[in-house]
Amino acid sequence: MKKALVDPNPTAPSAMDERDLAMVERAIAELRSGRPLRFVPQAGQPWLLAPLEGFDPSMLAQATAAGESPLVLLTATRARHLGLDPQGERVVALSAREMGADDLAALANPLHRPQRAVAEWPVSLRPPEGAEAMLELLKAGRLLPAALVSPDSQDAECLSVEEAAVRRFREEAGARLTQVAEAAVPLLDAEGTRIVAFRPADGGREHLAILVGQPDLSGPVLTRLHSECFTGDLLRSLRCDCGDQLRGAIDLMEREGGGILLYLAQEGRGIGLVNKLRAYALQDRGADTLDANEQLGFDADERVYRPAAEMLRQLGVAQVRLLTNNPLKVEALAASGVTVVERVPHSFPANGHNEDYLDTKARRFGHLL
């Protein structure tokens, strides 16, 4: 047997309290509906939190009229693209007292043209306690990570969510999976294929394990972690190489007698389809795929791979030959207890539309193309 590329040193995941899970699920639903909620940090005062995406200007007016000091929270990546200095912080806070609806829209979304210079607004030296978790909550809802917050007067009737629950939510809840369906699904190029659906405990979209042929689960299994790409996988978009990678992986698994493709519900490197379309619009203005994600306020890559490791565990797979060009996938699987015996290269020629995209993957993401 080949020596593993990375020796795993897994740690057992802790169970997230069901009350905390339900609390965060409801909080995400409230934010996606445009309603504010009460955020309770681990230390310090509670805050009323509202997303700037779909923002109701009346909340700003109410907070200001009540004598409160509302703040706008932005990620450091968004702030840098606005020309602000995060001063080593993960979150930047701006005073919102002199802002209008147009200002807020421009701060949240780089596709909205501001009517005045961002440099005119003062930067708070100290974001409120729990500010990073507040924006993580918006990311979990696939919303732009930009928020308006004001000190909680306890007068508003709204849902409360605790910082500790938010911090545990993304990694832990997403990795708690239940197999909910399995069926034979003959494919055009791989007739002996089965699909197993896994539902996450956080109420998110199901992940799929596509079992091609008859993989030997007792040894290293040819495996690909494939994050969903509606535009590339289904519509055969030429902006990326995702469709080629999906179909190429299934073809190789069929030729080798079997393999497992994990189809993960984390579109657009984890920012969601709507934000991926926004990123495309920014790319059409000259940004590359990494800068576009950061201009929107996200990290360059927001994906997590603990769900993939849990799917493999439930399928009885402990060792894989990983079909990827992304070293981070090797590291992530190994950190979650899956032995990566071999990295199998998986690249395809450019098509006349995705040369810059592939160049960025190699040059800035470190993909081995």
TrEMBL record:
Q: In which pathway does it act?
A: Cofactor biosynthesis; riboflavin biosynthesis; 5-amino-6-(D-ribitylamino)uracil from GTP: step 1/4
Q: Which Pfam families match?
A: GTP_cyclohydro2 (PF00925)
Q: Which family does it belong to?
A: Belongs to the GTP cyclohydrolase II family.
| Cofactor(s) demanded | Zn(2+)
Cofactor: record remark: Binds 1 zinc ion per subunit.
Q: Which reactions appear under catalytic activity for this entry?
A: GTP + 4 H2O = 2,5-diamino-6-hydroxy-4-(5-phosphoribosylamino)-pyrimidine + formate + 2 phosphate + 3 H(+)
Domain (GTP cyclohydrolase II) ranges? 181-345
Q: Keyword Nucleotide-binding: yes or no? A: yes
What positions constitute the catalytic site? D301, R303
Enzyme nomenclature, EC number: 3.5.4.25
Annotated function? Catalyzes the conversion of GTP to 2,5-diamino-6-ribosylamino-4(3H)-pyrimidinone 5'-phosphate (DARP), formate and pyrophosphate.
- Please provide the record's keywords in A-Z order: GTP-binding, Hydrolase, Metal-binding, Nucleotide-binding, Riboflavin biosynthesis, Zinc
Provide the gene name from the record. ribA
Q: Where does Zn(2+) bind?
A: C229, C240, C242
Q: Which organism is it from?
A: Aquibaculum arenosum
* InterPro entries on file: GTP_cyclohydro_II (IPR032677), RibA (IPR000926), RibA-like_sf (IPR036144)
- What protein am I looking at? GTP cyclohydrolase-2
